[in-house]
Amino acid sequence: MNRAMWLLAPAMLIAQPASARDADTKAEEAQEIAEDAARDLKDSRFYNKPGASRADYDADWQTCRLIARGSKTPAGSVPIYDPAMYNPAISPLAAGIGSGIGAAIGAAIVEGQMRRANRRNCLLIKGWRLVELPAAESAKVAAMSDTDRQSYFATMVGAQTVDGDITEMTSFTPVTDAKLNMTGTPTGPASLFLGKKVDPRTPLTLADNEGALVLAFRRNDAGSAGRSGRVQIRRFDRENGDLFYQPRDWKKKGDHTTYNSEFVSKDKKAAYELHVAKLTPGWYVLQTDAVGTVLPNTTNCFGAPAFEVKAGEYGYLTDASPFLDAALATGGRHTGMGYARNFDEAKAAMMGFQPEAAARMVEVRIENGATYSCAGQVMTRMDFPGVTDVVPGPIAKTEPSVGEPQDVLPTSAASDGLPSAE
């Protein structure tokens, strides 16, 4: 460019129509996303969805990247950052980071590994298949030029048939099997847990703005007998498609709202173990569960069962069966929580301890598909068996106009820490 052209360049840039500048910006962003998404198109593996295009893959990859970072919810909204609220999705591993540079580096590496795993889970949940190529085919791809390799992947991401080991997610309901017994008459007497050192026959009462949730741990076969487990629920913002988060100064404000609760089995020898938790009325999601002594490390943020707790009611949710290394009819083994609804049996068992509460028991309606901000755990989805109702999408919010203040995520949510952490 000669000097005259160089002097004219700024004027030429200013004179460029806004629409043209926007188009250039979008093209640059698309190119950057495509380059980033290519890091999961390797010589040895790639993602495939029959009929999809490379642009489809790039778009889903970028969406999953933002979700894994905590910058987007699975519903597509931006998590609200409020310094007064404790939102674990904003800084997924904040609670576990130690002091010092070494600890920060280690946490960044672990967080990067978790984000990669969650990006993978997100793509699988969206219907993509992870294809791992045979050694011979992988060597052929490795020997291709960059141009040929890109052409190869542009074809293979949407190919109808592919060769190699395929990993995919086709079902999100807990495992069912002929040997996993989650129904039928309990094999032993029922027990009831109302709290530490609380007599199960002490009459239950509910305050004016209080409801209760009833859950039972059922152990009806060898795979669940003597096994312990836990189920965690979180308060759900059904209108905005996210969780409600407890204010940091909740004690100062006198906020006694239930934001989360946990059912932990206490009598693993009982064939039928009832639990009652008093909760603030409102919507909740079944966020996660675990069997045995391990703590939960997953969150159903890509789709969770949601249900409403109403004031004055004892709402029965489910029977949960903790299977640990249980033998399957197929010949394999299974570890995980099984779910089935046996309302009449739960009510009959409650009648033996709390007849007035049993008379007010109702079966809560469950809706599948509740999505919310994904915290720093293994992100997954769980559909409650037999449920066809689906949580309606969050109410659409208008985008802020130019010049209006917008929510700004802190650095921990907007970046991946170390350059290699992605």
- Average the pLDDT over all residues and give the rounded result: 83
Radius of gyration of CA atoms, rounded to a whole number: 26 Å
Number of domains: 2
Helix content: 25-40%
Distance from first to last alpha carbon: 39 Å
Characterize the largest beta sheet: strand count, sense, and whether it forms a barrel: 6 strands, mixed
According to DSSP, the number of beta strands is 17
- Choose one word for the global shape: globular
Structural class: alpha+beta
Order of helices and strands: HHEHHEHHEEEEEHEEEEEEEHHEEEH
**SS strand fraction:** 15-25%
**Uncertain runs:** 1-14, 89-109, 398-421
Treating each run of at least 4 consecutive H or I residues as one helix, how many helices?
10
How would you describe this structure to a colleague?
- This protein is an alpha+beta fold and 422 residues long.
- The protein is built from ten helices and 17 strands.
- The strands form four sheets. Strands 4, 5, 9, 13, 14 and 15 form a six-stranded mixed sheet that branches.
- It is globular and about 75 Å long.
Would you summarize the structure shown here?
The protein has helices at 3-15, 18-37, 54-69, 101-125, 135-142, 146-156, 250-253, 343-351, 355-359, 411-414; strands spanning 45-48, 129-132, 165-167, 190-193, 211-218, 229-237, 242-243, 260-264, 272-279, 282-291, 298-299, 304-309, 314-327, 333-340, 361-363, 366-370, 378-379.
Write the layout of secondary structure elements.
Elements (H helix, E strand, L loop, with lengths): L2 H13 L2 H20 L7 E4 L5 H16 L31 H25 L3 E4 L2 H8 L3 H11 L8 E3 L22 E4 L17 E8 L10 E9 L4 E2 L6 H4 L6 E5 L7 E8 L2 E10 L6 E2 L4 E6 L4 E14 L5 E8 L2 H9 L3 H5 L1 E3 L2 E5 L7 E2 L31 H4 L8
Parallel strand pairs: 4-9, 5-13, 11-17, 13-15
Antiparallel strand pairs: 1-2, 2-3, 5-9, 6-7, 6-8, 6-10, 10-12, 12-16, 13-14
